[in-house]
C-alpha cells in the first residue's frame, strides 16, 4: 500500500492532525481520492484501524473530523478483525496510508 508523507490537501492535513491527537494507529484514504479519479466534489473515504479503540474514542474522533471546515463529506469506516475480507482487499489494493 502506498503512503502519502506530504500533501497540499488541507482536509487530509487536518485528518492527520486529528489522528495524531487521538493516537490513532493508521488512517487509510480509499475510494476515488486514493485512486486519483476524483472530482472536485468527491467525498473523502477514510479507514481507521479500530481494534484498540473504545466506542467513546471513536465518537470523539468522529466529532473532531466532523468539525473540519469543508464542503465535502468525510466518511469514516472503522476496520478490525471482523471487517469483510473483500472490503479489506479493496482498501489494501486502492488505499493510500495518510497517517501511521
TrEMBL record:
<dbReference type="InterPro" id="IPR052930">
    <property type="entry name" value="TA_antitoxin_MntA"/>
</dbReference>
<protein>
    <recommendedName>
        <fullName>Polymerase beta nucleotidyltransferase domain-containing protein</fullName>
    </recommendedName>
</protein>
<feature type="domain" description="Polymerase beta nucleotidyltransferase">
    <location>
        <begin position="13"/>
        <end position="100"/>
    </location>
</feature>
<dbReference type="Pfam" id="PF18765">
    <property type="entry name" value="Polbeta"/>
</dbReference>
<dbReference type="InterPro" id="IPR043519">
    <property type="entry name" value="NT_sf"/>
</dbReference>
<dbReference type="InterPro" id="IPR041633">
    <property type="entry name" value="Polbeta"/>
</dbReference>
